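Retro notes (design track)

What went well: tokenization of the new backbones is finally stable.
What didn't: we kept losing track of which sequence belonged to which structure.
Fix going forward: every design gets posted as structure first, then sequence, in one message. First example under the new rule, 158 residues:
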């Protein structure tokens, strides 16, 4: 891989806009571990090594199990995901692979049964955001491996 420009330095205002959207997504009320799974699944589909490295580290920091991370690519066949997670993962796949087609009604109905209207809009923004990060990282060949998670493990509810 040849060295390409750093898009965040080349367009600091663009980066600030993306960072603001990312901040919104992270504080929108959807469970953080679920967001990490969705980001990983979209990044698997897109083939974004940098984002996979980042979000697998963040998911682990939040307490995600290795088994669920390893089987994420085959979530339909694995019994380790809740109905809410399954709906979000299916929605993430439909949106990430949207080119040239519509999101099927049955997929929408499944995700709408698991998420409130506000949550569904926010989940869709989260998926759009990770797809944008994926495209930046892939286009400019951002090298994976250096990311260090600064997340603290989630505390169990009492």
């Amino acid at each position: 891989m040849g060295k390409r420009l750093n898009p965040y330095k080349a367009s600091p205002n663009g980066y600030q806009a993306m960072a603001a959207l990312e901040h919104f997504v992270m504080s929108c009320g959807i469970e953080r571990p679920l967001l990490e799974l969705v980001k990983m699944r979209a990044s698997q589909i897109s083939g974004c090594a940098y984002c996979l490295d980042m979000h697998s580290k963040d998911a682990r920091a939040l307490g995600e199990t290795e088994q669920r991370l390893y089987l994420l690519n085959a979530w339909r066949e694995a019994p380790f995901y809740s109905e809410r997670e399954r709906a979000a993962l299916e929605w993430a796949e439909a949106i990430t692979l949207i080119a040239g087609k519509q999101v099927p009604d049955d997929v929408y109905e499944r995700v709408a049964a698991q998420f409130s209207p506000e949550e569904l809009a926010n989940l869709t923004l989260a998926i759009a955001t990770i797809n944008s990060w994926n495209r930046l990282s892939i286009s400019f060949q951002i090298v994976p491996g250096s990311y260090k998670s600064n997340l603290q493990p989630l505390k169990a509810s009492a």
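Added context from the reviewer: The mean pLDDT is 92.
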